[in-house]
Design a protein that fits this description.
Layout (H helix, E strand, L loop, with lengths): L2 H12 L8 H9 L4 E4 L8 H9 L3 E5 L3 H13 L4 E4 L5 H12 L5 E4 L1 H4 L2 H7 L4 E6 L22 H4 L5 E5 L4 H11 L5 E4 L7 E7 L3 H11 L4 E5 L3 H13 L4 E4 L5 H12 L5 E4 L12 E6 L6 H8 L9 E7 L1 H12 L4 H19 L4 H8 L12 H4 L4 E3 L1 H13 L6 H8 L5 H6 L15 H13 L3 E4 L5 E4 L3 H5 L6 E3 L20 H18 L3 H4 L2 H10 L4 H4 L7 H19 L2
Parallel strand pairs: 1-6, 1-7, 2-4, 2-5, 3-4, 5-6, 8-13, 9-11, 9-12, 10-11, 12-13
Antiparallel strand pairs: 14-17, 15-16
Helix pairs in contact: 2-3, 14-15, 15-16, 19-21, 23-25, 23-27
């Protein structure tokens, strides 16, 4: 099949007129019968690489998918595009599973989604052998590798596919895998001479922003309110923190919900369903929430606490901006959080595993400490070396500058000395800024000479200064004593003004991470709001996620082009023949009514 025929099929089923980078080559290779390893960023178009071949191959494509909710979203979306698909998982009865197999035998299903735990069962594999299977696709393939950040034991058994189906091509797909993980995936699956597509890991539409965490809950509340009705995810490292933060935000009027592995499966399902359908604005979650979240209009991801690896970080921020529109990854950084996680990793009973995890966490630390483009740090980690600054991270937008910080550092170090090294960073900032609290009064520290000597500066300013003094070795945090700050021997020379100390000027961000991207195409925002409301009505009536009707990118293009007939509407990216027939009339009527108002 030539590329013109592939493009015709692409437009007919998916409503797109062009392939993204690498998609056409991958599809040609797999249709020729070759195994493939596909590495593309989240939102880069991985699913299309097996979904389009599935429509063209004379048989069935089996898709290995990690989560029930992801399977349902994918099947709902494909069905509305006129592609026959189904899933088999624990949510179905025996009768429903039998019905699906009857439809498979009758050639009425093109794609079947299954979990790795079911696919690798002997009886299930035996049942598949009588079917005309033409392709296996393994999503989230990094789970296969012991070095992958989401290692999942059932995935490691997928090598059996080559034993049962030696002549059927297998496509493994992932968004985050370093060099070691990639090699392990190929080895575990038993690929011989595979086609490997390594796309850029870059997600240029996502802005990377790191800010000092000095009053985390209020910072997040302020940020969410600035973003109004945008969908977002806030990641925490513990269930306790998830509950605490979600309770605070809910009491402050935010439409949010908590999500973690300690909750009952039914409740987690309700939260995820509500978020997917835009009934819940913000989800506060542990990393249990993320893998397989098929929601295209997440506009921001906030890390309230640091992830343990760059892979985890990149996988989690990859939930944002999957529609290609501007999004943001905000990281609230606290040195105490970093130290606590490092201590937990060090205490791992498997010493070798602890060393590997510490090395990976060091990469996360390097990202936090970066004084150069943050995107370069991430891309270099994935062996995608680049000298080009991104222009869309806090470092590029607000480059750090140095200043003579000798006097400022003396204020901090003197204050640590005056309170007898009995306070953490938060407490020290309270003293520097001259703020009275019950603990300050209990300790009598409102009477020390350094009380209030930094009241003209903001909390974020002092947090930035203290953090640099820790990094440079003038202060240490004693984890055994509630992270109290301790003076090091190196601090003596600064206190005595024996050396001139240069530090990076604290970047106060000045809400720069709330600026709209200049790359956003202009469109009628009032019409967009109307289209969004119509989409929600249709989605609710059909009990599906709104993006399954049309995603935000398609709505913004509808609001920009404002088509008034079927031919014009088919020129809009994301509108194919099936969706035009299903949804075209109400959207065209709304656009015409808007134009004649």
């Amino acid at each position: 099949m030539n590329e013109a025929q592939l493009l015709d099929s692409l437009k007919h089923h998916f409503g797109y007129t062009t392939f993204r980078n690498g998609q056409a080559d991958i599809i040609k290779q797999v249709m020729s019968g070759r195994d493939c390893l596909v590495l593309m960023p989240t939102g880069g178009g991985k699913s299309l690489c097996y979904q389009l071949p599935a429509t063209l191959l004379d048989g069935i494509t089996i898709v290995v998918s990690p989560l029930i909710s992801l399977m349902k979203d994918q099947v709902d979306s494909l069905t509305r595009q006129g592609i026959s698909a189904a899933y088999v998982n624990s949510s179905l009865s025996t009768e429903q599973v039998n019905d699906i197999f009857q439809r498979l035998n009758a050639g009425k299903i093109k794609l079947l989604y299954v979990a790795p735990e079911r696919l690798t069962q002997h009886y299930f594999l035996q049942g598949l052998q009588s079917l005309p299977i033409k392709l296996f696709a393994i999503d989230e393939a990094h789970c296969i590798s012991q070095w992958g950040h989401d290692f999942r034991r059932a995935y490691t058994q997928l090598g059996c596919l080559k034993q049962y189906f030696p002549h059927i091509p297998v496509m493994a797909l992932t968004a985050t895998a370093d060099v070691t993980t990639r090699k392990d995936i190929l080895n575990q699956l038993g690929f011989i001479d595979p086609y490997v597509h390594l796309d850029s890991f870059d997600r240029p539409n996502i802005r990377f922003t790191l800010a000092e965490k000095y009053n985390g809950q209020k910072q997040i509340l302020s940020y969410i309110k600035q973003r109004k009705d945008d969908s977002g995810i806030v990641y925490c490292s513990s269930r306790w923190q998830v509950e605490k933060l979600s309770e605070f935000l809910a009491k402050s009027g935010v439409n949010c919900a908590a999500y973690h592995a300690g909750m009952e499966a039914d409740i987690r399902g309700v939260v995820q369903d509500g978020f997917t359908k835009d009934n819940v604005q913000v989800v506060i979650a542990t990393v249990a929430f993320g893998l397989g979240i098929n929601k295209l209009n997440v506009r921001y991801v906030i890390h309230f606490e640091p992830p343990r690896t760059i892979e985890s970080y990149y996988q989690e921020i990859g939930r944002a901006g999957r529609d290609g529109l501007p999004a943001e990854a905000l990281f609230l950084c606290d040195e105490q959080d970093m130290a606590r996680i490092k201590k937990r990793i060090s205490e791992h009973e498997n010493e070798q595993r602890a060393q590997v995890e510490l090395q990976r966490f060091q990469a996360m630390t390097d990202f936090v400490d970066a004084q150069t483009c943050r995107r370069q740090v991430v891309l270099n980690y994935f062996a995608e070396f680049t000298k080009q600054r991104c222009g869309n991270c806090d470092i590029c937008l607000d480059p750090p500058t140095e200043f003579d910080a000798t006097e400022v550092a003396q204020k901090v170090l003197s204050c640590v000395f005056r309170i007898e090294q009995k306070g953490d960073v938060q407490y020290l900032v309270t003293i520097l800024r001259g703020q009275i609290s019950p603990l300050v009064q209990k300790n009598g520290h409102e009477n020390v000479s350094t009380f209030g000597i930094g009241k003209e500066k903001t909390p974020s300013y002092w947090f930035a200064i203290i953090r640099q003094l820790i990094h440079l070795g003038y202060l240490q945090q004693d984890i055994a004593q509630q992270s109290h700050l301790k003076l090091t021997e190196a601090a003596r020379s600064v206190l005595k003004a024996e050396e001139r100390l240069m530090l990076a000027s604290p970047r106060l961000q000045k809400a720069s991470y709330w600026r709209q991207s200049s790359a956003t195409k202009q469109y009628d925002r009032k019409l967009f709001a109307k289209l969004r409301s119509l989409r929600k009505e249709i989605a609710d009536a059909e009990d599906v996620a709104p993006f399954i009707v049309f995603n935000d990118a398609t709505l913004s293009e509808l609001a920009r082009i404002q088509p008034t007939n079927n031919h014009q509407m088919l020129t809009v990216s994301g509108v194919g023949d099936t969706k035009l027939a299903r949804y075209g009339e109400p959207f065209l009527s709304l656009i015409k009514a808007h134009q004649s108002r």
